[in-house]
């Protein structure tokens, strides 16, 4: 009934190609490094310029300009300066995160047991780890290697995606564990080990390679990658990058589900994929930002999209939301030297950021829990978001989410203007509540914040389920936020559209 009601009262999203584009984005983004690279490509295609944190910005940025900056290749902040921007004007920010719960290859991953080659992996984040059993797993990540010259060598990095079903974490046959359907328990250190091949194949390869290697007298503080990892894995990585394995210094490799993301359901209403948490928000905020560039040519604010790494483990890193990445970017933008000539007394450098942040608004966008038809009793009875029902406003009295009444009224106004349906979510009192980057950014900057996100099922599984139509709803909402949100904040006046 709700689905029919929504279709009757709201227009369909303007761009029906978003689901297909999102599937392509998911399949090209197996790690945060790939996420940022693909976001960069999209921004460059739309005329954005790349900045470097280690270089000065003042005097090099212009009103109406579009720019982005990255950190660690796994976090990115993109922004568009309004044509009428002056220092101290507000920021309209949408924040997301690039990481998801995954299995990462350990620094010394080489394992052997019962004549199987195995790969040592480390659990990253709070994954539903039993969902990783019996999946075809591939490997992707970042590789650091030497570029040899006559004068020495320099270190370079490349992204790699092997795009092959290489690993498997097999379950135990039911004949050997008759209680497996009652309760599936396992030791994450010893029973979450993927098998990579048969030991004798690797032993022959190692013997062949060792016989042709010269004696080396050099001191090495840490063993080489071919000693710490299976040689064949290292050579697969090297071959993919078209380099030799001996120049690889190190890598950060992640396992992922080789099965491609796709649209599903009787009417293609679902997106089936891993990493919907939170590549959904990376995708929608990115497309909303670039689409908004054609909406308001005389804007006074700075439109910002910030996608951080390490949210799944608390955000406490140099490239996480709890770092100085966003505050330092905002400080630079608030002090570019575009002074407001209408003020009788110009703002000091120290005042500009403080004034700007108090006018600004931050949308913390992370996926939300859609109601599960088989576990409906786990949800608060009056707050059961559904896939296909539009973005979900997340509220928590204990400030796990930052939504409050002024923010809710603002987002409701924007949704009315853009004809986007909204849903409300509160966790049941007898259930734990997750959190987002919202409380972190709000406490670090003092910027008014609201938490929202598109509804999905099986959050933190290797394979999650989201809604195809919800992508367009969220993009339209964010686009309206970039166009009208800060004007409403500054004036308190909602411009009605015909």
TrEMBL record:
Which GO BP terms sit in this record? proteolysis
Gene Ontology cellular component terms for the protein in this record: fungal-type vacuole
Could you give a GO molecular-function term held by this entry?
Answer: metalloaminopeptidase activity
Keyword list (alphabetical) reads: Aminopeptidase, Hydrolase, Metal-binding, Metalloprotease, Protease, Zinc
E.C. designation(s)? 3.4.11.21
Q: Which domain of life is it from?
A: Eukaryota
Specify the enzyme's EC class, one word.
hydrolase
Its recorded reaction(s) are: Release of an N-terminal aspartate or glutamate from a peptide, with a preference for aspartate
What are the names of the required cofactors? Zn(2+)
Q: Which PANTHER family match?
A: ASPARTYL AMINOPEPTIDASE (PTHR28570)
| Assigned protein family | Belongs to the peptidase M18 family.
Indicate what this protein is called per its UniProt record. aspartyl aminopeptidase
The organism encoding this protein is Lachancea nothofagi CBS 11611
């Amino acid at each position: 009934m709700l689905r029919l009601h929504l279709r009757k009262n709201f227009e369909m999203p303007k761009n029906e190609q978003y689901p297909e584009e999102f599937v392509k984005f998911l399949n090209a983004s197996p790690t945060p490094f790939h996420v940022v690279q693909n976001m960069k490509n999209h921004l460059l295609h739309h005329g954005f310029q790349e900045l470097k944190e280690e270089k000065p910005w003042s005097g090099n940025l212009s009103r109406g300009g579009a720019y982005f900056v990255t950190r660690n290749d796994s976090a990115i902040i993109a922004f568009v300066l309004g044509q009428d921007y002056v220092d101290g004007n507000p920021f309209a920010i949408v924040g997301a995160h690039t990481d998801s719960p995954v299995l990462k290859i350990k620094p010394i991953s080489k394992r052997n047991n019962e004549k199987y080659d195995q790969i040592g992996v480390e659990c990253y984040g709070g994954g539903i780890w039993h969902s990783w059993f019996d999946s075809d797993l591939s490997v992707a990540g970042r590789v650091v290697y030497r570029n040899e010259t006559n004068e020495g060598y320099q270190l370079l990095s490349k992204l790699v995606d092997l795009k092959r079903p290489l690993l498997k974490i097999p379950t135990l046959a039911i004949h050997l564990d008759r209680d497996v359907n009652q309760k599936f328990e396992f030791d994450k250190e010893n029973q979450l080990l993927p098998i990579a091949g048969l030991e004798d194949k690797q032993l022959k390869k190692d013997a062949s390679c060792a016989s042709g290697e010269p004696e080396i007298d050099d001191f090495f503080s840490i063993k080489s990658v071919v000693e710490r990892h299976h040689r064949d894995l290292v050579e697969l990585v090297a071959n993919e990058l078209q380099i030799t394995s001996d120049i690889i210094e190190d890598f950060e490799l992640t396992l992922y589900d080789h099965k491609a993301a796709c649209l599903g359901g009787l009417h293609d209403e679902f997106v089936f994929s891993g990493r919907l948490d939170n590549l959904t928000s990376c995708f929608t905020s990115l497309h909303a930002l670039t689409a908004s560039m054609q909406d308001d040519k005389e804007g006074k604010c700075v439109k910002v999209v910030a996608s951080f790494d390490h949210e799944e483990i608390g955000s406490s890193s140099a490239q996480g939301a709890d770092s100085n990445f966003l505050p330092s970017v905002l400080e630079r933008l608030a002090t570019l030297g575009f002074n407001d000539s209408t003020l009788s007394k110009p703002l000091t450098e120290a005042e500009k950021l403080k004034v700007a942040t108090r006018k600004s608004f931050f949308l913390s966008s992370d996926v939300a829990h859609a109601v599960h038809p088989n576990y409906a009793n786990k949800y608060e009875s009056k707050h059961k978001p559904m896939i296909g029902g539009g973005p979900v406003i997340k509220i928590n009295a204990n400030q796990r989410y930052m939504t409050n009444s002024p923010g809710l009224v603002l987002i409701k106004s924007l949704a009315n203007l853009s004809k986007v349906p909204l849903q409300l979510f509160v966790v049941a009192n007898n259930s734990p509540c997750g959190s987002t980057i919202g409380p972190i950014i709000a406490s670090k900057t003092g910027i008014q914040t609201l938490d929202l996100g598109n509804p999905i099922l099986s959050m933190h599984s290797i394979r999650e389920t989201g809604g195809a139509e919800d992508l367009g709803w969220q993009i339209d909402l964010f686009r309206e936020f970039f166009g009208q949100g800060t004007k409403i904040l500054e004036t308190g006046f909602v411009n009605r559209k015909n």
